[in-house]
Design a protein that fits this description.
The complex is a heterodimer. By secondary structure, chain A is mainly beta. In chain A, the strands form two sheets. In chain A, strands 2, 4, 5, 6, 9, 10 and 11 form a seven-stranded mixed sheet that branches. Chain A has a four-stranded antiparallel sheet with strand order 1-3-8-7, with no helix packed on it. In chain B, a hairpin with a 4-residue loop joins strand 7 and strand 8. The relative contact order of chain B is 0.31. The chains are: A mainly beta, B mainly beta. Chains A and B meet through strand 4, strand 5 and strand 10 of A and strand 5 and strand 10 of B.
């Protein structure tokens, strides 16, 4: 199975900050990498698919990059509604696996 | 788009439960669908997906042989039959549309329900 490792596990940032979250795959997955935002009690939300394609309706301050084994999710200017947990997911081969999540907290 | 899960609850180890997912707002019969779960304090875990025509299913090793995913396109519904439940199956179970083939051949989940809690405990 392909393991997905996110870093950092948690981070604190202020409104307006630029934030970068990293996801590393245990083997090359091309660009079969997707990012989600999770908030307690709410349905998870797709942000980015295929490493860098912004899902319709997602603010442009979110961006994704990378290929192979190393990927990043960047929030260019953190907004209050962005405090959440972010999770990456690969779909290169079965089984699909998710990263353990990065919790973004208010500084 | 709306996805609504139901059927969660408290069940004893070794017991069974059937989850349902009711879909609306998109072409259900043309869509792959999937189940993803999140155990308390843990990350997301993919459970299973099913193709639009029901001909293809795939399962995580942790549930293979115990869980069965199915769908009724006439009812716009998907199901997860869970047998031989274990304590480690305790989680919130999410129904999601798998966008495989919508834009590209990539399994990503573009619409999710709010989830239903399954608790396995004696």
């Amino acid at each position: 199975d392909i393991q997905m490792t996110q870093s950092p596990p948690s981070l604190s940032a202020s409104v307006g900050d630029r934030v970068t979250i990293t996801c590393r795959a245990s083997q090359s997955i091309s660009t079969y990498l997707n990012w989600y935002q999770l908030k307690p009690g709410k349905a998870p939300k797709l942000l980015i698919y295929s490493a860098s394609t912004l899902q319709s309706g997602v603010p442009s301050r979110f961006s994704g990059s990378g290929s192979g084994t190393d990927f990043t999710l960047t929030i260019s200017s953190l907004q209050p509604e962005d405090y959440a947990t972010y999770s990456c997911q690969h779909s290169y081969s079965a089984p699909i696996t998710f990263g353990q999540g990065t919790r973004l907290e208010i500084k | 788009v709306q996805l609504v899960e139901s059927g969660g609850g408290l069940v004893k180890p070794g017991g069974s439960l059937r989850l349902s997912c009711s879909a609306s707002g998109f072409s259900f019969s043309d869509s792959f669908m999937g189940w993803i779960r999140q155990a308390p304090g843990k990350g997301l875990e993919w459970v299973a997906y099913i193709s639009s025509g029901k001909s293809y299913t795939n399962y995580a090793d942790s549930v293979k042989g115990r869980f069965t995913i199915s769908r009724d396109n006439a009812q716009n519904s998907m199901y997860l039959q869970m047998n031989s439940l274990r304590a480690e199956d305790t989680a919130v179970y999410y129904c999601a549309r798998d966008a495989f083939g919508v834009v590209i051949m990539n399994h990503y989940f573009d619409h999710w329900g709010q989830g239903t809690l399954v608790t396995v405990s004696s």
